[in-house]
Amino acid sequence: MNLRRILSPVALGLFMLAAAADARYVYVLPPTGTSSAQMLIHNEQIQLAGTVTVPAGSFQVLTNVPGDKAIVLATNNVAAVSFATLPNGPVTSLSLDGQPATFGAVTPDGLRLLVLAGSSPGSLYIIDAVNGNIQTGGKISINGIPREVVVTQDSRYAFIVSSGSPTALLTVVDLSTNQIVNQTQLAQVIGALHASISPLGQVYITGQYRMIEFDGRPPFAEHARSEVISNPGRLHFSPDGRYAIAANELLNGYSLICIDLQVKGPTTAAGTEISKILVSTSSNTAVRIDDIFPVNATTAIAYSALDQKMFGISYPSLTANELALSGVGVVNGVTSVTRTDEFPAARNLYYTSGGKLSRFDLVQNTALGITDVGSGTAVFVPQPNTGATPKTLFTYGGGLTSVKPGDLVPYSVRAVDANGRPVYGASVSFSSETAVLTNAASTTNVDGYAWVVATGPPANGDFVVTALVGSLTANLTSTITGGTGGGTGGGGTTDPGNVAKVIKVSGDGQLLQNQFTVNVLPLVVKVVDAKGAPIAGKEVTWSASPGIQFTALPTPTDANGVTQMSIYPNGDFQGATYQGYIATASVVGIGSTTFSISAFPNGQFYQPTIFIRKPTQDVRSITMKLGTKLDGAVHAIVSSATGIAIPNVGLRVSTPFTDPTQGPVVHCDGQTALNGTVLTAANGEVDCNLVAEGKTGSTSLLINVGEQRDFSGYTITVTPGDPVAPVIVQGNNQTGKPGVTLPLALTARIVDPSGNVLAGTAVTWDLVTANSMTLVNTISAADSNGLVSTKVILGPTPGKFKVRLKAGANETLFDVTIETSATGFAKVSGDGQAVAPINTAFAQPLVVKVTDASGNGVQGAAVTWTTTGSVTLSATSSVTGADGRASVIATAGSVPGAITVTAAVSNLPSQTFSLQSRLPGPSVTATSFANFASGVAGVSPGLLVQITGAGLAPGVTGQVNANILAGRLPLTLSGVTVNFQWTGGSGYAPIYRVANENGVESVLVQAPFEITGTTVNAVVNVSGGSTNVLAIPVSLVSPGVLEDVSGSRRAAVVIRSDGQTVTPDTPARPGETLRMYAIGLGQTSPTAYTNQVGTPDQNVLAKIAVGLDNAGIQVVSAQMAENLIGVYEIVFVVPVGTTNGDHPLGFVMEAVPGQPAYANGSILAVQ
Hints:
Radius of gyration: 40 Å
Distance between the termini: 25 Å
CATH class of the largest domain: Mainly Beta
Strand content: over 45%
Number of domains: 8
CATH topology of the largest domain: Methylamine Dehydrogenase, Chain H
CATH superfamily of the largest domain: YVTN repeat-like/Quinoprotein amine dehydrogenase
Mean pLDDT: 89
CATH architecture of the largest domain: 7 Propeller
Largest sheet: 5 strands, antiparallel
Shape: globular
Structural class: mainly beta
Low-confidence stretches: 1-22, 486-498
Number of strands: 103
């Protein structure tokens, strides 16, 4: 009977079951209330990877950046924190001064563990997540009862929310100094408190009736708050960060709420609740939700510990139903739920029920396995995904439409790999043509996030921040309004993408007498293009509020882009003592700008009051340093005749000098200053922050208010400013032989920002490289011309060196070159060495030697190193040591091939090293080889062997299966070959399949029947990169029952007498003769050969006994399966009287008398 058609699909379906352990773990904590017990550690495929003993009360599992430890927190006075080396220990524990841990978090860089403990006051412990020690200053007292802690994406600041009397408290700790930097009383916040941090870095505190948003950066201000009914829990954010889902405790029950963080209102400034539902079971019993797991952009899974139920959630318009899993149904008695961290859609769901841990693929919508774990809580903890290549970039924070100039706008990006796993440590660079950026260069954290803060530019219109990660780019675009050259609020409007501007030049802030034209200045504007160049011939249209008269015709700009309009105040005051007006200059297609004008009625009794508060009347002088700003140097107050404050009146301060080369020049400075004029505020008061430039000396100070009144009789004395970096006069870039004195003294002039000589200023001279030279005849105080100098005697070591000159906080560097005495340059070692795998260092350093005319080594010679090909060097330049030698380490890059490294010394022939790199071999060891059916490590002659390990299938997605209908299997498949080597022989393994599924790479092969001995070696080659595996255990036989999986049921592959596969729907019958398929049964008679299909009557030489219900039953035969390679069939009879249901099935064989070999146990359905 030809069973190939029947068995092949079954066998192919089994190939994905055997998987290597992955560095992504599902932990099962022992049940609450047990004493010290075992924590089970499973890989992502829920195969047991290890166990460790953890303290009683363990409740939380975390990990560090190396990913080598599980960090376990416990409500345990003696062992509150434990570090377990993965996967089997040892475990070290840490006491927190006898206090149990209550909450913990690892910083996003993975380097620090933050643990809360104690109460009234409590403590924050800051622990090194790598070595497990409490950091210096790492115990910080926190008032009240600390509840939760969150950390900003850059790992800089920790936010701790604590409850207490009379109010709750938010404490901010700077983790760079371990100091409290801010504390905020949370007024009107009571009840259970929770802290959450959004993908954009905003911190949210939720409590009874309140949700409060705080900025995640200094000064940590409360940004907004929303009223929420009644007591929302921790926020769980949608992948795009727009929506937050929270469990909500009502006064008389429970609900789920969805908050849109982009929709604001008068009482919901932090975000608006847009949907709310009561969650209930199928029997309409209301339930309390304890945890929420967003799965993708529209769905989440909620878990109720009290009701032991899972619920499927749709959002933002909320719906909730008991979760029914495909092929599983509704699961009852759920004791814990967790899921993997792929983004934007999670891949695997894990849950415990009835003492078993189950895995469900949320993408394929199928159950993937179940295993016994006993009681306990499952927790998925991803290891840092280091070294992965980012494939997708997600952005947060773009699309803002009303950013003001100077606003600090946070943006962030999230990088994930091809499997959706967040990438740790990827370099990110941010750039913008118009916005100033803070933290423009960073790396992604454990969650894949990197962030930047942009300062809103002054010009209206769109501005773009670009993120670059490897070959990926993303643009975040926001829009400035209220700035210059467009928009509203004084800036006018601008066409999208057009950054040409209309700029105010003068005339703003005038205070005028009605119907008077004396001292009335024209309104002057300038029109410029996107590059700031003037635009001539543009028509400017003018408009103004009633009370200001002007010529209604447009005015054209001149060759300098400038035009002006004369105005005449002629308003009706109707009893008022002043009026404020607005005049607007507009250019079609570019934008507009506005002027503020104030007027008062005609008549002697309506004169406004202008008072100069500073400088005071008794001290009418100011002294300030050149190049500095003196805040509040001049303060004026403007009010009407009846004492009403007049806003928007200009204050201008000057001296008789306009040319800074002739004398002191001063003006008002600041964000609100325009061409040296500042305007009064709503209270009629204005400050001038004075800046002095030009020459030093004393002169008169002129104060003008509103172009209406001048105030004289003031003086200003400008003293020399602080020194700038010393200005080199002579001596830079000199070259000489060792031991000589340079001909020119190093000379510099000490001046302030305006070039004024600072005679007498003390300076310091020093060497950047100690002992490289000697400084003599040094002058360290500026003479009357501001000059300082030093002579230089060159040291013995050749190379480029620097002399540092400091004046105050500023410095200047002189470059000096000491010539070498070298005459010879040669390679010493490292050329033509053994080929290295890509991304690994070559075994030998590349060494060169520089010699003098006598053949002695020359110390201090500078060697530069350059490369061609894919390679990196430990340094691009080096200096020879006392023996004249210099060296670098070469590391092969990611592309295999020829490599050239060239070493060069000035004025000597260069030396070239020739190297070669190759593809790496896969990451496999002897334990990577296992029985395909049983999973037992090792091989046996003719066995189907599953090899697992990284690098076996780098270019494969899913499975690549050989054509087994051809009668023979290929020896090469998808670039993979496996060559087994034993004493006296070797042979290539036929390959059934190469696979890369869920990040697990594997190869299924047949071990040659010719293998002898107790161990065998293997060479596994993938696309030219090979790995030698030594001492793989060999046994004479390695029996295994082939099994199939349907749903969560795993059963032996057995064929009934009518050709159907035995399943619960087509069970075996009592008294029926069946065929069971197995592997690893060893040699037959006639002889079985490698890569040949079975033929009739190839009987197994060893004795075989089959057991059903743990009792022996009749075996008819055990032979090679016809037309299959490496597969056996055992024919047996089901005993008459066997009861209905699943029955344990297995077999044992004896290839060597007295040494039984047992196959893996399975089940058989009988009815």
